[in-house]
Design a protein that fits this description.
By secondary structure, the protein is α+β, with helices and mostly antiparallel strands. It has 3 domains: 129 residues, Butyryl-Coa Dehydrogenase, subunit A, domain 1; 112 residues, Butyryl-CoA Dehydrogenase, subunit A, domain 2 (Beta Barrel), CATH 2.40.110.10; 145 residues, Up-down Bundle (Butyryl-CoA Dehydrogenase, subunit A, domain 3), CATH 1.20.140.10. Helices cover 47% and strands 16% of the residues. It is built from 12 helices and 12 strands. α5 packs antiparallel against α8. The longest helix has 37 residues. It starts with a strand and ends in a 7-residue tail after the last helix. Bound molecules: flavin-adenine dinucleotide. The site of flavin-adenine dinucleotide has 23 residues, from β3 and α12.
Length: 401
């Protein structure tokens, strides 16, 4: 699909969707970096409950983590698709981007909605790797997916907001200097519209821990740094408000489209990892006198997973092209997320089945990647909420909430 698509009778011409291996140099560089971080590295990190500091350093030093930051602030000024390609290649190489990914999608929020002073203060440090901007606090224990009813409250007191409440699943807070925090600035019963009343604060974690912010790590089935965070009269300077007070939900939505598209690229990388591994093993493993891949019970599910991966790939490319052209992409970003996470899950499942008992052995790395692929169907957004988005916003079906 190399042609620019356009709908008959529609004056907006859609952007060209790249087909084939675009950004070949980036792909090759990421593959070269990832060669230094084989399966043993990730298994060792997991057994020691460490979070890939060497891998994060290598990605930061290479400049790829600041790929999306404009050149005037020290980044490469590349489009979202390039960021996606970076994440896809990391996943396809058997590595994990889960401890470094947030910087890229949060950057888009800061660049689009931040004040000039905020950009001047933070972006150069983030580009150079001196500042880690990896944490995003939205989800709360009592409201879960119901973001519009979250309760963590920020009340203005002079030139500060005073924050009280609790978040859960705030990832990477222990490995980050800065975070974005979604807070309620107008009580639910006083907001003008359902989507009003929330604001986005940029919080300096270094100044906050022990001064109103308490972080408690949560152990999970993957080696991913995530936390409960308690806010008890945390003071955040008003100058750290990103965008307009009470209009934070729209800012978060911008961040969410880029997050969905970037994380969808990771799932595509997972598909490639699982399918490559399954095909190699199916060709090599001989049982009953022939390679197991000759059996259609092994071959067809892998072929089906490949077809699912290719279909998801087209949707991910479409969503990224729309995003980069500045066009509405909520529908495509959500569908990219849905299809890619399901394709990764199907690919992981077939990789497991193909490897038989060996899939359970840690040294094969399949179970590690499989655990990672499972989470993609829950976080950053669960499959049902994507289906609800398509049902309500695209198809006009009634809302369940
Ligand atoms: C490893 C990990 C890392 C995370 N990192 C972050 C992070 O950095 N920052 C952050 O803010 N959050 C983070 N999250 C939270 C994540 O975004 C949420 O877990 C997710 O959005 C679902 O919220 P919940 O777990 O509260 O589920 P709930 O909202 O309680 O939902 C439970 C189930 O019910 C379904 N459901 C709920 N309502 C409906 C409905 N109306 N129709 C159909 N189905 C429905 C959901 O789809 C889900 O399957 C992380 C989670 C995990 C597991």
């Amino acid at each position: 699909m190399s042609e620019a698509a356009s709908n008959a009778g529609d004056e907006v011409s859609l952007p060209t969707v790249p087909y084939g291996e675009d950004y070949p140099e980036i792909r090759r560089s990421i593959q070269a970096i990832c060669k230094d971080f084989p399966g043993e590295y990730w298994r060792d990190q997991e057994s020691r409950k460490e979070h890939a500091a060497e891998f994060t350093a290598a990605m930061t030093e290479s400049g790829y983590l600041s790929a999306l930051i404009p050149e005037e602030y020290g980044g490469a000024g590349l489009p979202l698709r390039a960021g996606g390609v970076i994440f896809e290649e990391i996943s396809a190489a058997g590595c994990s981007a889960s401890n470094i990914r947030a910087q890229m999608y949060m950057m888009k929020m800061l660049i689009k909605h931040g004040t000039q002073a905020q950009k001047d203060k933070y972006l150069p440090g983030i580009s150079s790797g001196k500042l880690r901007f990896q944490s995003f606090g939205v989800t709360e224990p009592t409201t879960g997916s119901d973001t519009l009813n979250l309760k963590t409250r920020a009340v203005r007191d002079g030139d500060h907001y005073v924050v009280n409440g609790q978040k859960i699943w705030t990832s990477r807070a222990l490995n980050s200097d800065l975070m974005t925090l979604l807070v309620r600035t107008t009580p639910v019963n006083e907001r003008a519209q359902r989507t009003d009343g929330l604001s986005v604060l940029l919080v300096d974690i270094r100044d906050s821990v022990g001064k109103g912010m308490t972080i408690r790590p949560i152990e999970t089935m993957v080696n991913h740094q995530t936390n409960e965070i308690f806010y008890d009269n945390l003071r955040v300077p008003v100058e750290n408000l990103i965008g307009v007070e009470n209009k934070g939900f729209r800012i978060i939505l911008d961040g969410m489209n880029s997050e969905r598209i970037l994380v969808a690229h990771e799932s595509l990388g997972d598909c490639r990892y699982f399918i490559d591994k399954a095909v190699k093993y199916a060709n090599d493993r001989v049982v009953f006198g022939h390679p197991i891949g000759k059996n259609q019970g092994i071959q067809f599910p892998i072929a089906r997973a490949y077809a699912q991966y290719k279909a998801a790939d087209l949707m991910v490319r479409t969503a990224a092209a729309l995003f980069d052209a500045g066009l509405p992409c909520g529908e495509q970003a959500n569908m990219a997320r849905l299809l890619s996470s399901e394709a990764a899950w199907a690919s992981g499942e077939e990789c497991m089945q193909t490897h038989g008992g060996y899939s359970m052995a840690r040294e094969y790395d399949i179970e590690r990647k499989w655990r990672g692929a499972r989470i993609q169907r829950i976080a950053p957004i669960s499959t049902n909420l994507i289906l609800a988005y398509i049902g309500h916003n695209v198809l006009g079906l009634p809302k369940s909430y």
